[in-house]
Amino acid sequence: MWTSKNREDTYIADRGLGGTWKISLHGDVAWRYAVTSEHMRDAEKPVLPTDHDRAPWKFTPPSFTDGRRLSFFIAVTRGAMLPETPDPAAAPILVEDRWDRMSIAEVWMTEPGAGLTDSHTVVGGPLPLPSGRQVWVTRRIVPVHGEPETGIVSAMVEPITHDIAGVSTPGVIIRAVRLG
Hints:
It contains two helices and eleven strands; from the N terminus they run ββββαββββββαβ. The protein has 180 residues and is mostly beta strands. The strands form two sheets. Strands 8-9-7-6-11-10 form a six-stranded mixed β-sheet. The longest helix has 6 residues. It starts with a strand and ends with a strand.
């Protein structure tokens, strides 16, 4: 995650997706999950046709309440946690290796002078925006009911929006992919 020094923009991307996809939270207006313009310009075989809207998921920014807003979430199921070497420049979100818990990274924005409450477990930030707003990353763990996933071969990203799931905060769930 990073913020723009000159504009009210916050970006979220996975290094593993090779600069193909990113989440852009542009001020209070244009929030989207899109293929990067660099990928569309430079890739031999872009993931979307060149005449296709490169932002298939668009979000309405949530409102601020008491100077804070939960802006985006990234939830990861246990089965999607594949072995990988951590990036030394990243701020890891450590979680227990348990199938009955889901790890959630929450991206918060606060108005100038507002902060997060003691109930938030901050793992990154605050990152500044030109307006004086700040962007934070917190961690939350929620229980999951069901059985452990088996036969996992990969992971996929599932966008969650108001239109898809009726949620007030947009996000993604990283889910396990299994064959058979």
